[in-house]
Every structure is written in C-alpha cells, then in structure tokens.
UniProtKB/TrEMBL annotation:
GO terms for molecular function: NAD binding; oxidoreductase activity, acting on the CH-OH group of donors, NAD or NADP as acceptor. Residues 98-257 form the D-isomer specific 2-hydroxyacid dehydrogenase NAD-binding domain. It comes from the Bacteria. Belongs to the D-isomer specific 2-hydroxyacid dehydrogenase family. Coiled coil: none annotated. Pfam families: 2-Hacid_dh, 2-Hacid_dh_C. It comes from Tsukamurella paurometabola (strain ATCC 8368 / DSM 20162 / CCUG 35730 / CIP 100753 / JCM 10117 / KCTC 9821 / NBRC 16120 / NCIMB 702349 / NCTC 13040) (Corynebacterium paurometabolum). This is D-isomer specific 2-hydroxyacid dehydrogenase NAD-binding protein. Keywords: NAD, Oxidoreductase. Residues 39-269 form the D-isomer specific 2-hydroxyacid dehydrogenase catalytic domain.
Amino acid sequence: MVTVVHAPRAPEVAALLAAHPLADHVRPGPEPGGTVVHFFDSAPITADDLDAFRPAEVIIAGPATGTVDLAAARARGVAVLDTPGLAAHSVAEYALGLTLALMRALPSTDTQQWTPRFGSEVAGSTLGVVGTGDVGRRLTTLARGLGMTVLGWSPRSTVAGLSLDEVLSRSDAVSVHLRLAAETEGLIDADRLRAMKPTAVLINTARSAIVDSVALREALAAGTIAGAAIDVFDAEPVPPTDPWWRAENVIVSPHAAWMTIQAADRFLDAALQYAVHRDRRAVRTVLPATKMHAS
C-alpha cells in the first residue's frame, strides 16, 4: 500500500489527491516497508518522519530539491525518487507573463492611482533565454509565437554560437532557466548585469543563487537595467520588511511559476502511477536503496 506523508499546503492539491483514480491505494498512516508519496510543496520529510514511517522508498511528487533529508534517507537505506520536469510548460508560461508585465510597465501602473505609463511591445523585441532545457525550449516556442526573436545560451551548448555576454547585451528581456550547480551559482553577477541594456529586464524563475541578489539590487537602483521579476529568493517567504517589496521596478512573485492545477495533477499522477503500478516513465532515481548503516 501507499502512504502519503504530510498534507500538501495547498487545499487544491489535497483535492486532486482525493479525486485521483488511485486514491483507494493510499493509506493515511505508516506502512513499514512500503512506499511514501510526498508532494514537494509540503513540509520537508525529516529523519523523524522516516523513523515514524519506516518506508522502503519515498517518491516525491515533483522535484526532490529540499523536500527530504537525503542524508537521513541514505543512513536508513531508504530509496528516494522524484518526478521532475512536469511543470515545464507552467513555468514557461509564467516567465512569459512576467516578461509581458515588465515590458508593458504593469508594476508601475499597479499603484491605485491613475498613472498610465508607456511600455514596449514584445513583438519585434529580443528575448534572451539563459538555460535551453525543457522550460527554455517551451518558452522559446511561446515567445516566437508573439513575434519575439529568441537568443539562447546554456553552459553546455549555444545557439548560433553566441556567448552568454552576447546574449545578455543583445536582449531586451533575459529569462533565467538553469539548474543550480557549481558552474551556475552566481553566474549573473554585477559584470553580467552591466552587460545588459539599460532598458532591459531580467526574469528569474529558476534558482535564486544563480543571480547575485546584491548585485541585482544595486543594478536596479542605479538604472543599470530597467526592471526585474523574481520568483525565487534566498530566503522564502520574503519577509515583509525586505526592501524587495518597496522596489518600484520589481515584481516579487511567491515562488509560484510552477503553480497550475495541471502541473500539480501531473506531479501527483506520476508519483502514484509509480507507487502503485511501478510506472517509471516520469520518475528519476535521486538516491538508490542501500543497506542500512550499522547503529
């Protein structure tokens, strides 16, 4: 049988789980040696949770980053799997929406005052996509449908042989879609921000550490770039006293790029299909099962 540990924070996800065709296979309590399904947007699974549930494996409905104590799982011989990438279209749509909002100056009009502002059309503009994986490719398709020219860059391959600095300097909007790794941490730093046009905007729906947040604050304050939309932060939720909330040329988004009913449903379905039917088509092994360490 399947155990679901930790109720999802969003009631919409709990409703999706209750209505799922495989819901009858779910048990609310521990099933030692069984499979635990964990929705990634819930409270993380701790060592105490693993001791209470004593599972053979944990399958994350969504990406595993930050959702389970991997060291504790390894020490207890518990396998950890996840279902990444199933929100790619949702994230791509959201990134495009943030791009439209910035280029059409929507943040400056949301002031409860009648203050119309000139913006820029996206048709005919250039979008730089930093990270050309699944999300980046989907965003490219969407942006081209609006008449944008797209320049792409990733650490492992480039489109049209362009360097990152060339993509940044030629783009009217830059959207970040990289995985966080040693080679990408701090990649968008003060020098890279200075390479951008002063009229350009930056969108980050990937990981906060890819963009130097101090350098970004300074670039926005100095007018080095025109605006930014940020969906990922060093500390979440963003404290109410954080200066980001008071920045006029910034959209503060609550890590919501993935949040569509369709994406949540895909996450849950992939995890349950694996847990019940061993369907691995959307599943990745994060930590293989191991023999428990001697105590």
